[in-house]
């Protein structure tokens, strides 16, 4: 059983090779070199699958470091490639390995296993196979999330995994409500901070509360409207207390959740009225213009940027539309529901988010992008400008910037003449 140890970790070089024999048109344009040699896709696919089989075997190794390295390599592969057929044949083996690592592993191994569980469901999409995976892993994830003796990092990773996997696979409304209740039991403990003088609710738990709140918010976006109304009534008057939290991420998560709740409330009732609106807008405005010297400049800049948008959402019902580019396509994020969903999946997929937006049927369905755009290698190659053209463009842009700056400097030099 010592042979698999010689398998090298999944690298960025592996990720850059286009190996999808069933969807080769989904390559990133940058992956094609100018006049480069043709790649044998079948051979590279076989090589990749051989490596992945070795990693799956290593998830059962006696060494915790070996198991964790194998999990991380599988995560890297799953986030950068569509491997539906390969995973379909080995989904139960992968599920068993993940379950074992979450149950028996230490903190880092549990985090890696939870991350791999997310990616497994993202790859499989919302089918019967994913439901089987969640039926096996759901109870294990809930147990870790609620286990006060487990590490905060492991509980945080399992809370995120629980929310994303439930979002992907759950058609059973009872299971959805049960998962939301589990997450509620975690983040509602943050409400007690102002009343807790013993210091039990320390900043140490803030990362767990943030993950639970964001995972719960994601699930709220797929709830029936009558349940959404109940949750809004339950939490809308309590969430503002988290805006005074010492942890920056907790303040931001609470602010963005408030914006989303107001958006959902106004969708269900155009005349929605919030009693403490003046007090809430005063708090949001203070955070949007915060100048406390004891806070880091980077944190203040990030906080002010987020809360300017939150304040506009609460006061003016406005959302600053963002555009996401991936390949030849564009996606517009024009509401808080879409923004929160995008941010959650981006956290899991990382740099592979753009690739999955192009290729993953489930994600394209979530963001209403339609079927994948099929582009062959020749089309993608023509879309890429040559190095010489890129050099000319950069030179012209540099000259234009220089001229514009020179004009601005001239205006500053002459400014005294106008007074």
Automatic annotation (TrEMBL):
Listed GO biological process terms: cell differentiation
A Pfam family per the record: IFRD_C
Interferon-related developmental regulator C-terminal domain span: 360-413
Residue segments, region Disordered: 1-38
Keyword check for Cell cycle: no
Keywords in alphabetical order: Developmental protein, Differentiation
GO cellular component terms listed in the entry, alphabetical order: nucleus
Entry superkingdom: Eukaryota
Residue intervals of the Interferon-related developmental regulator N-terminal domain: 19-315
Oligomeric form and interacting partners: Interacts with PSIP1/LEDGF.
Family: Belongs to the IFRD family.
Protein name (database record): Interferon-related developmental regulator 1
Source organism: Alaudala cheleensis (Asian short-toed lark)
Upper lineage: Eukaryota, Metazoa, Chordata, Craniata, Vertebrata
